[in-house]
Amino acid sequence: MTKRDSPWPAGTPCWVDVMTTDLVAAKQFYGPLLGWRLTDGSPDTGGYVVADIDGRSVAGLMSMQDGMAHPAVWTTYLATDDAAATAEQITAAGGHVVMPPMDVMGGIMGLGVMAVAQDPTGGTFGIWQSKEHTGVQLANEPGSLTWNEFMTRDYAAAKDFYAAVFGYSYTELGGETFQYATIEVGGETVGGLGVLAAEIPAQVPPHWRVYFEVADPDATAEALTQAGGSVLRPPADMPYGRHADVADPQGATFSIIKGAQPA
């Protein structure tokens, strides 16, 4: 279990939210599935919903804005100490700032500063400069975030970009058949970066993938299907636990995993 009430180190995946085409349906799906209590935001926040477990924030949900044509999607936010400076670094490294840094309201200080960007390989991500809202307050427990990984078709370019902007270092885990590395920030492993499999359809863009810890992936996959979601890759064992790739009823993809227990 990881509990945290202070800002996450710069470069660390610190928050996730789903932008959906049906917020009511998404709440009905995720709440029971992952054991979330859901709190609706005020009209000033656009109705942004915060999910918590035992009072600790774990994720967000929001409606697709008018005029948006892309499918429902989970977004990973990377922590920064200075959103404006990071936005400049993103551009200098060949990325594109889709939404410039903006203050997110709440209290005297505000909740934080956010921006949305795209890396040179086509992957979209957010950045978050904490103020009152420091990011996820619970991780590595059932129902909470436990892993984030960026999957791309240009491994070298992605590694170079994230290293230049966020100071990432990498430990290679791949072999002859695949390329994958863990991401380190300040000597701590914070995520992964790998190559999309050849069989992934070309229309699937590079993306940051979100993993939620669950107590029983098989039971969760079954419950998810009964709730209108879909299983894209059935539960299977791997060295780091038992995991499945899934999608909610609106099509937002994510993964569930029961992490391997230390020997």
**Architecture of the largest domain, according to CATH?**
Roll
- Name the strands of the widest sheet in spatial order: 3-4-5-2-6-9-8-7
Envelope shape:
globular
CATH fold-level topology of the largest domain = 2,3-Dihydroxybiphenyl 1,2-Dioxygenase, domain 1
* The CATH class of the largest domain: Alpha Beta
Distance between the ends: 17 Å
What ranges have pLDDT less than 50 throughout 5 or more consecutive residues? none
CATH superfamily of the largest domain: 2,3-Dihydroxybiphenyl 1,2-Dioxygenase, domain 1
Largest sheet: 8 strands, mixed
Counting structural domains, the number is 2
Task: Please provide the ordered H/E string of secondary-structure elements.
Answer: EEHEEEEHEEEEEHEEEEHEEE
- Rg calculated over all Cα atoms: 17 Å
| Strand-pairing-aware structural class | alpha+beta
Count of extended strands? 18
Strand content: 35-45%
- Our count of helices gives 4
- Rounded mean pLDDT score: 92
| Residues in helix, % | 10-25%
Please characterize this protein's 3D structure.
This protein is an alpha+beta fold. The chain has four helices and 18 strands. The strands form three sheets. Strands 3-4-5-2-6-9-8-7 form an eight-stranded mixed sheet, with helices on one face. It is globular, with a radius of gyration of 17 Å. It starts with a strand and ends with a strand.
